[in-house]
Amino acid sequence: xxxxxxxxxxxxxxxxxxxxxxxxxYFRRDLGAQVWIRQLPAGTPWQVPDTRCQSVSxxxxxxxxxxxxxxxxxxxxxxxxxxxxxxVPSLAFRAHLSPDEKRIxxxxxxxxxxPESNWGIWESTxxxxxxxxxxxxxxxxxxxxxxxxxxxxxxxxxGSRWDVWAISDAAG
Length: 172
Known about the structure:
4-stranded antiparallel beta sheet, 3% helix
């Protein structure tokens, strides 16, 4: 039997949004996972209607940044589309808006590279322009901004283990 676990949780004020995912199905297909919200510290979870994402996080205003099939969308907590932002050529995971909501950083596979060295953190503006790796010579993932926007923390693979790095991001 498959194990179902919460995945890619993000907290805004006193609410947590997360994906409830069957790991095998999530990575084998472009289905996305159901989106759930839970009041913290111990509220009853509720499902965002008609919404499946491969990445979900909060916007500052309390809407959701959802990716699925490489498409970036802003949705409300009832699952209604507010805005389609842009599309990338590969699946995007762990997407987060910058604190000023002018940029998006996310994990995405690099093209034409071996799978074991395939991931990086990418950044673009909200219209998908200026798409680039934040650390082109490193295998990176799983980043997040500090609340003040001045520090970006992420993981990098050193060949034998994952290390945590932080970079100054004064543009935040």
